[in-house]
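Deliverable D2.4 — example input (structure tokens):
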């Protein structure tokens, strides 16, 4: 390893120049400097001038895509979005309740859905004398 690399490693500065502050950091530009910069950029085309969309969708293409993804061809067909069934167990009465979603369980037990999720994942043990498990 060269001496310059050893110095960089020893300083804790792995990328070399990171940590150096630009000479003009925090110095506001004067109105004259702003005007000069503005004049310099005038007449220059914008960065996206003349660029076109890489793909233009015709009505026929949109209809074909819609037909391909409709009904049972849709990968999400028959799946519930964002809902997991869970079982709630009251630690005092030992009653078990089955819910279709965490939101339903939260409404019925007055435990926040975030706490229910944490309990189901094993990050928490209980909340308000309720324990929950994914079904």
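Example output (designed residues):
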């Amino acid at each position: 390893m060269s001496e310059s690399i050893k110095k960089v490693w020893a300083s804790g500065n792995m990328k070399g120049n990171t940590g150096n502050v630009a000479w003009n950091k925090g110095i506001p530009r004067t109105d004259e400097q702003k005007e000069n910069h503005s004049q310099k950029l005038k007449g220059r085309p914008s960065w996206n001038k003349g660029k076109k969309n890489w793909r233009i969708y015709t009505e026929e293409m949109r209809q074909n895509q819609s037909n391909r993804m409709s009904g049972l061809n849709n990968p999400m067909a028959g799946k519930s979005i964002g809902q997991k069934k869970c079982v709630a167990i009251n630690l005092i009465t030992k009653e078990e309740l089955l819910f279709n979603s965490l939101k339903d369980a939260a409404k019925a037990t007055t435990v926040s859905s975030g706490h229910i999720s944490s309990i189901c994942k094993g990050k928490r043990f209980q909340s308000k004398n309720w324990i929950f498990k994914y079904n």
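Strands lie at 86-90, 96-99, 130-134.
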